[in-house]
Amino acid sequence: MALDSLIDKFSLKSFGFHRHFLKTGLTAFGFFAKLVTYLSITV
Q1: Which of 5, 7, 4 is nearest to 15 (CA)?
Q2: pLDDT at residue 14, rounded to an integer
Q3: Which residue ranges make up each domain of the chain?
């Protein structure tokens, strides 16, 4: 029972981390896409 709650806490924490990582990754990707678009327009 204690092990189950420990696993639940860990998976919840890792899920939050993955969500944060995904959000950061999407933001970086969006910035990169804008940069590429800007460069392709100016060049």
Answers
A1: 7
A2: 77
A3: 1-43
